[in-house]
Amino acid sequence: MGGRYPGKVTVIAVHVEIPLDAEEGLDKVRDKVHAIVQRAKLPGISYMLRETQEVWQAKFEIEGYPSTFVFNKAGRIAKKFLDSEAAEAELPTLLSKLVQEP
User: Fold this and answer.
1) How far is CA 7 from CA 53, 62, 72, in A?
2) Is residue 101 a contact partner of residue 73, using CB atoms and an 8 Å limit?
């Protein structure tokens, strides 16, 4: 989507720390996340959050992963997807509408 709307859409990928990450160690997890980002050719920005999974689940009412959040130009959540198939189906129409907003 970032490639479809250059300069209008920013893609931010976020990895939330899970219990297994603590066991594996930060360096190994960072390498794994970097490899996924490279392999998927994810455009935009990638973050690794060090707070526990529970912190972010509570903050954004996340019920499962992957979750997709689309923010409007005002920085408010325009749509939250808890299902990747629904996100893939609806994102083109939603983003087309949002990039046209003033």
Assistant:
1) 31, 28, 14
2) yes
